[in-house]
Amino acid sequence: MTSFRLPPGPGATRRALLLAAAGAAAAAGAAEAQTMPVTVGREGWLFAQWDSVDARIADVQRTLPVISQAISIIKGAGIGVAVLLIPSKTRLYRQYLPPNLRVSADLDRRYGLALAEFRKAGAIVPDLDTVFRDRAKTVQMWFKSDTHWTPMAAEIAAVEMAKAVGPTMPPSSRPGTQVTPLITRQHARGDLVRFLPDNQRGSYDMESYQVRDVVNAGGQNALIADDTADVALIGNSYVEPRYAFQPILSNQLMRPVTLFWKPNNVGPYSSLVQFLNSDTFKQQRPKMIIWTHLELDLETTPTSGSWGQNGMSVDKFLGDVRRGVGA
After folding, report:
1. What are the tens digits of pLDDT across the range 132-151?
2. Name one GO biological process term (predicted).
3. Is residue 122 pLDDT above 90, yes or no?
4. pLDDT digits over 252-279, tens only?
5. How many angstroms separate the CA atoms of 32 and 305, rounded?
6. Separation between Cα atoms, residue 35 and residue 195, nearest integer Å
7. What are φ and ψ of residue 213, in 5° steps?
């Protein structure tokens, strides 16, 4: 296991908003701002409008029991569950919001509600919100113009997850992933820039970031294809290889970790079901599943239109989970 010392860094539904943006013609002034699914904040920080400053607590309270039931089903089948609960960029970087936008009290309590509910269901859930708020004083946790966290935030999260999960796992006969010292790279303009008018896009250049590479002859593809791991990470684009969450987690757990990820519009529900139906799961039933959830998606049940063709009824989702784990 490598001991990491992190350096300081530089200081409607999603689907509906994206469709609105695609159909809107570029125009100047306030009317244009109403159609853009992106908010331009202080110092040029960009925020997705679906990562709202408010929270629909009634919807959250409908969603959390569904996730908790899935956790209970998996645990009942003899598989441990940890939840990678990723905080909201809007809430964490509220100081860069426009002056007319303020984070609501409901948004401030949303993460804590989920944390308590998932832990009550028996999942291991590191409190990344508290950790991130502290580390954000010295480390840039999100890209300025992107919806995603930086690899340094992913590393901090992976270390915290390993601290929480590691003591519950038996020693592994196989080693964890070896990683390099930090490497500085350039991140292309973020995924939110494309929603800006043409005359504003030029204000956004590439951003510097730091990340660790894998010391492995087979590279990331070999890591993802590892079918002997007893820890499975199920997630979205926040845990795709370029953010290096998986290799850092493997390094800190001192054991292989397999990765199964889908774009976030697939959703956490279908992603879980697809993994449970995969050859990877059938050939190597893990001792621990780490299930990724974005805080900003805690208001969306499996039936949400946000998931498109990947949506399903709550009963179907829970039934598919039961069948998948053989419960």
Report:
1. 999 999 999 999 999 999 99
2. alginic acid biosynthetic process
3. yes
4. 999 999 999 999 999 999 999 999 999 9
5. 25
6. 10
7. -90, 165
- Burial of 58-84, coded b for 16+ CB within 10 Å and e otherwise, reads eebeebbebbbbbbbbbbeeebbbbbb
Average pLDDT of the residues in 70-84:
99
Cα gap 83→68, rounded to integer Å: 10
Q: How far apart are CA 318 and CA 269, in angstroms?
A: 9
Contact between 293 and 121 under an 8 Å Cβ cutoff? The reply is no
User: Cα dist. 18→24, 60, 197, 244, 306 in Å?
Assistant: 10, 22, 14, 27, 11
CB 147 within 8 A of CB 87: no
Give domain status of residue 7, yes or no.
no
Phi and psi torsions of 108, nearest 5° = -65, -25
Q: Is residue 2 part of a domain?
A: no
DSSP letter, residue 121: T
Secondary structure class of 141 (helix, strand, coil): coil
Name the residue range of residue 288's domain: 14-325
The verdict on residue 233 lying in a domain is yes
Residue 305: inside a domain, yes or no?
Answer: yes
Number of domains in the chain: 1
Per-residue HEC secondary structure of 235-302 comes to ECHHHCHHHCHHHHHHHHHCCCEEEEECCHHHCHHHHHHHHHCCHHHHHCCCCEEEEEEEHHHCCCCC
Average pLDDT of the segment spanning 46-68: 98
